[in-house]
Amino acid sequence: MSSRIPRLFEAIWGLLVEDGSLAVGIVLALAATWLAAMTLFGLVDQLGWFLTAMLLALFVANLYWAAHQAKIRGDGRPG
Amino acid sequence: MNLSALAISVGPAFIASGVEFIEATTIILAVGVTRGWRAPIYGTIAAAVTLAAVIGVFGATLVTIVPEHALKAFVGALLLLFGLRWLRKATLRFARIVALHDEERIYLKQIAELKAQGLRKTGFDRIGAAVAFKAVLLEGTEVAFIVIAFGAGGAAALNGAIAGAVAAGIVVIALGIALRQPLTMVPENWMKFGVGAILSSFGVFWFAEGLGTTWPGDALSIFLILGLFLGASWLSVRMLRTMLPHGAEVAARNV
């Protein structure tokens, strides 16, 4: 039973983080937006779109990388 | 409650929570059919009580201690981590890089695993209870995220989101009891794709609001953000399909 508790926490952690690079990218995008909000007071109403653009770029880049890795594995080379 | 509040909380909460209830029901059905119903029912009740206690303690603490703006930013960050993870997986599924979610296959695999564990004739079935407990706790946590996402707009939205989630639970459990088999007729992959995009859009909206952004048209901006996420996902599916030859698609499961 004691080994089930860490596994349960791992599973709950997995709800938020499945791909480490995507999770780190999201956190960095949020941090950059927060920093911008602290320093660029006049542009605070544009920050939502700034965040959206960063996340979309991150999302597409992450998928491209995943497919690229898959392609390499599909060709029989190490991923 | 007005119609816009209904549209923005009840409907999406019903659909998104429904997906989670279906997944939990599949596991509980597998346990019940294989090992009897007593243990999975106890496991389900224990998980529901645990979840209620955790949400009650942490939810109440967050709402009373954390200032409103910081709370919105926190909720937005969690939703983005949660929603983009769903959207990524759904996009990889539609690009045929990851196998499509198949409730029937999961049900049969779970039954095979539970049968392999063996069943004692006497005593309480701890394995059956633990499997049900874990499934309900995990899927229930996701339902909690969903309710928070669609209910963060205020008391009316929160009540609407809770009503949507509860209604989804009642419908799915009733169907599960009536059919006694996994609900394979539900287009889960499409629902997950849409829900991932919706959660991500709400995440962006709440995080920026938490930082003090005023969105043009207020909550109507969510539809524009949603369109951008759906558009990017659709383009990504097309891009990934052109990148991978058929052989590579097959070999590249579980990226």
Secondary structure blueprint with pairings:
The complex is a heterodimer of chains A (about 80) and B (about 260).
Chain A (H helix, E strand, L loop, with lengths): L3 H13 L3 H20 L7 H28 L5
Helix pairs in contact in A: 2-3
Chain B lengths: L2 H33 L2 H28 L2 H27 L8 H15 L8 H26 L3 H25 L8 H23 L10 H23 L2 H6 L4
Helix pairs in contact in B: 1-2, 1-4, 1-5, 1-6, 1-7, 2-5, 3-5, 3-7, 3-8, 5-6, 7-8
Quick structural summary:
The complex is a heterodimer of chains A (about 80) and B (about 260). Chain A has three helices and no strands. Chain A is mainly α and about 80 residues long.
Can you describe this structure?
The complex is a heterodimer of chains A (79) and B (255). Chain A is mainly α and 79 residues long. Chain A has one domain. In chain A, 77% of the residues lie in helices and 0% in strands. Chain A has helices at residues 4-16, 20-39, 47-74. Chain B is mainly alpha-helical. Chain B is built from nine helices and no strands. Chain B is globular and about 65 Å long. The chains are: A mainly alpha (79), B mainly alpha (255).
Please describe the structure with a list of short key phrases separated by commas or semicolons:
heterodimer; A: about 80 residues; mainly alpha; flat; disordered C terminus; B: about 260 residues; globular
Task: Give me the number of helical elements of chain B.
Answer: 9
Radius of gyration of chain A, in angstroms, nearest whole number: 18 Å
Mean pLDDT of chain A: 80
Q: What is the count of β-strands of chain B?
A: 0
Based on helices, strands and strand pairing, what is the structural class of chain B? mainly alpha
Distance between the termini of chain B: 44 Å
The string of secondary-structure elements of chain B, in order, is HHHHHHHHH
Order of helices and strands of chain A: HHH
Mean pLDDT of chain B: 82
* Structural category of chain A: mainly alpha
Q: How many structural units, i.e. domains of chain B?
A: 1
Oligomer: heterodimer
Whole-number tally of structural domains of chain A: 1
